[in-house]
Design a protein that fits this description.
- This protein is α/β, with parallel strands linked by helices.
- The chain folds into 3 domains: 170 residues, Rossmann fold; 249 residues, N-(1-d-carboxylethyl)-l-norvaline Dehydrogenase, domain 2 (Orthogonal Bundle); 31 residues, 6-Phosphogluconate Dehydrogenase, domain 3 (Single alpha-helices involved in coiled-coils or other helix-helix interfaces), CATH 1.20.5.
- Helices cover 55% and strands 8% of the residues.
- It has 19 helices and 9 strands.
- The strands form 2 sheets. The protein has a 7-stranded mixed sheet, with helices on both faces. The protein has a two-stranded antiparallel sheet with strand order 8-9.
- Helix 2 links the parallel strand 2 and strand 3.
- The radius of gyration is 25 Å and the shape is globular.
- The relative contact order is 0.09.
Length: 474
């Protein structure tokens, strides 16, 4: 093993951290690992098997293992734990050191840390990491943001370990400040929306059409072989084949229907509201998880609000329409998230390249999908494209399938199967393409009860009407 100092160090040797260290070492980098639980350090060293991996059980030994300027990646829970690690490291760091937060930190916390550490001569990078344990081991999607010169210090390491698509690493410098963690937040919001759509498609086929787990496996597997090819579709197909060792049936049927969340979807919805960007597909996915948690109330409501009659149509037609509806709704979900990134980039000065974002999401990350190639092409053709729905090729693909989305929404409503994701996608599509919306009535109402004024379509200016003093027409 070489006696050179390590190129990078990693704090937090849970599954993700352990796998990232192994990934870095496999690519020829000397790596140091630290964890507050010494047994995790021992486990890392035991797995090293000749790789240039060093372990440390104290921060001072850990920092001493690193070359100057030292580069340290943290994979610890977001919030106070990150600040706690920084506080312990600071006395040991020299000016020019680079700290990387690879957790799901809130972007405003990252912005604060960048400013605070810059005053002490320390560079701070907020980097989204997506791909789960397997991605960390064999190639994640990486979303770094922060000081450009700091990124250059660690770029060779992260370009080497990132997932590759057509030889291109799924990483790009996203911009100054907390741009990396902002992009990861929106990535997770899109993830919420896509998972909600797949869950609704499952419910429509299982409860609505009465399909078996084997049939569901086959359907999702076929979907994944076409234009719906995506990591989430792939794992959905696999889920329906897993046997349950306790009951002897399929595991999916024994899992409680109450979904948890860690907050990144909620952050995305909150940020969209703040910036005035409509993201209903993401919003309903967050709401859907809250509704799922009301298990006891839902059971009680099912007794007093029974569902109407079961499906009696053609199942093959319904599944075919659902497939096309899912394609349209997934595009709409991505479009909303990318529109939020565009607005945030303009508001916060991130200078995001949305083609680059689509490119690094093609591999490694949870929302990787074949359609991201189409999104990349759209942004290459029009870098300032305000919304993917305005791309002529994507618009044509959606027009061809629009009837299937409408039929799926109607079917869900008729069967009383909740499909808020599909419904929100359709409503967004119809609203976005409406030359005129009924917001004129809302403005009249606001002016009537609150004198909030309104604008006119036929002349410039702001107007107010004394509505109560007007006589009724006719």
């Amino acid at each position: 093993m070489s006696e050179q100092k390590c190129e990078i160090g990693l704090i937090g040797l849970g599954t993700m951290g352990h796998n990232l260290v192994m990934n870095m070492a496999d690519h020829g980098f000397a790596v140091a690992g630290y964890n507050r639980d010494p047994s995790r350090v021992d486990a890392l060293l035991a797995a090293a098997e000749g790789r240039d991996i060093r372990g440390a059980k104290s921060f001072d030994v850990f920092v001493e293992l690193l070359r100057d300027p030292c580069a340290i990646m943290m994979l610890v829970p977001a919030g106070k734990p990150v600040d706690g690690v920084i506080e312990q490291l600071l006395p040991l760091l020299k000016p020019g050191a680079v700290l990387i937060d690879g957790g799901n930190s809130y972007f405003q916390d990252t912005e604060r840390r960048i400013k605070e550490l810059a005053e002490k001569g320390i560079h701070f990078i907020g980097m989204g990491v997506s791909g789960g344990a397997e991605g960390a081991r064999y190639g994640p999607s990486l979303m770094p943001g922060g000081p450009a010169e700091a990124y250059e210090r660690v770029r060779p390491v992260f370009e080497a370990i990132a997932a590759k698509v057509h030889g291109e690493p799924c990483i790009t410098y996203l911009g100054s400040g907390p741009a990396g963690h902002y992009v990861k937040m929106v990535h997770n919001g899109i993830e919420y929306g896509l998972m909600q759509l797949l869950a609704e498609s499952y419910d429509l086929m299982k409860r609505g059409l009465g399909l078996s787990n084997d049939e569901l496996h086959t359907i999702y597997q076929e979907w994944n072989e076409g234009e719906l090819n995506a990591f989430l579709v792939e794992i959905t197909a696999d889920i329906f084949t897993r046997e349950d060792e306790l009951s002897g049936g399929r595991l999916v049927d024994q899992i409680l229907d109450a979904a948890r969340q860690k907050g990144t979807g909620k952050w995305t919805s909150e940020e969209a509201l703040k910036l005035g960007v409509p993201t209903p597909s993401i919003d309903v996915a967050v709401t859907g998880r809250y509704l799922s948690a009301l298990k006891e109330e839902r059971v009680a409501a099912s007794q007093v609000l029974p569902r109407p009659a079961a499906f009696d149509g053609d199942r093959e037609t319904a599944v075919g329409q659902l497939r096309q509806a899912t394609y349209v709704a997934m595009i709409v979900t991505y479009a909303q998230g990318l529109a939020l990134l565009r607005e945030a980039s303009q508001t916060y000065g991130y200078s995001l390249d949305l083609e680059g974002v689509a490119r690094i999401w093609r591999g490694g990350c949870i929302i990787r999908a074949a359609m991201l190639e189409e999104f990349r092409r759209a942004y290459l053709a029009r870098p300032e494209l305000p919304n993917l729905l305005l791309d002529p090729d994507l618009a044509m693909a959606m027009r061809e399938r629009e009837g299937d989305l409408r039929a799926t929404v109607q079917r869900a409503a008729g069967l009383a199967i909740p499909a808020p994701g599909f419904m929100a996608a359709l409503a967004y599509l119809d609203s976005y393409r409406s030359e005129r919306l009924p917001a004129n009535l809302i403005q009249a109402q606001r002016d009537y009860f609150g004198a909030h004024t309104y604008e006119r379509v036929d002349r410039e200016g702001t107007f107010h009407t004394e509505w109560g003093a007007m006589s009724a027409v006719g």
